[in-house]
Amino acid sequence: MSSWVLHFFVFALGCCLGSFLNVCIYRLPLSLSIVAPRSFCPHCQAPIRAYDNIPLLSYLLLRGKCRNCQGKIFWRYPMVEALTGGVTLALFLKFGFPLPFFSFLMFSAALLVITFIDLDLRIIPDIISLPGIAIGLLLALLGISITIKESLIGILAGGGTLFVVAFVYEAVTKREGMGGGDVKLLAMIGAWLGWQAILFTLFLASLSGTLIGGGAMLIQKEGRHYAIPFGPFLAFSSLAYVFFGPQLIGWYLGWGRP
């Protein structure tokens, strides 16, 4: 099999995974089963036929509309499919097909679901973050990712850091500024990536959140009280660590040395 065929196959599998993630993003906040019933149109509730449920391709062929009721299909559905396909291919190019590829693919999938649910509803479901902490610990225990010591310290450093920040912020301002979901999410990130990733993730998330959030506040003209979910920034920053973190940290530590 030539390399481009293999890469296309991996991307296509990632898009299929993205189609399933769309189901999770829609159904989990509604406490609906992600297994049954099969995919349906959110407008008319009609079941979507298998040939109308091909990732990316069906959206293009149907011109973004439901075949049954002609209701508009949200553009985010193909975006999630394409994004998941891209992340899957990037992980394959970095890790190949050993166990780290599958473990980081699972981690990335959880982050993508969390990101879009948080963007929609300003919540991070415990049904993803809490099992994510346990799975991260299990992988560390099995020696697939980091050591169990690094994972445990990562959980304490991640969850503990944001908990302290949230507690101090609420004590000073008398209003909630950081949700418990963010605390559990960073604990999950620590469980998978270790304590070394926590500072990197927090720094990049705070920087990107300030820049993007500041721009959003100016556009919305709602001042500093405009609510911006922090979960997507944490998710993006932890993925950045997976791909570039150790190299960037090594570059920074060596920067300026003769």
Mean pLDDT: 88
Number of strands: 0
The major sheet is characterized as: none
Q: Which residues sit in consecutive blocks of at least 5 with pLDDT less than 50?
A: none
| Tally of discrete structural domains | 2
| Strand proportion | under 5%
Structural class estimated from helices and strands: mainly alpha
The helical percent reads 55-70%
Helical run tally: 9
Q: Alpha-carbon distance between the termini?
A: 47 Å
| N to C succession of SSEs | HHHHHHHHH
Write up this protein.
The chain is built from 9 helices and no strands. It has 258 residues and is mainly alpha-helical. It folds into 2 domains: 1-97, no CATH class; 99-258, no CATH class. The chain is globular and about 55 Å long. It starts with a helix and ends with a helix. The model has no long low-confidence stretch (mean pLDDT 88).
What layout of secondary structure does this protein have?
Elements: H1 3-27, H2 57-61, H3 76-95, H4 99-121, H5 126-141, H6 148-173, H7 180-193, H8 196-220, H9 231-254
Helix pairs in contact: 1-3, 1-4, 3-4, 4-5, 4-9, 5-6, 5-7, 6-7, 7-9, 8-9
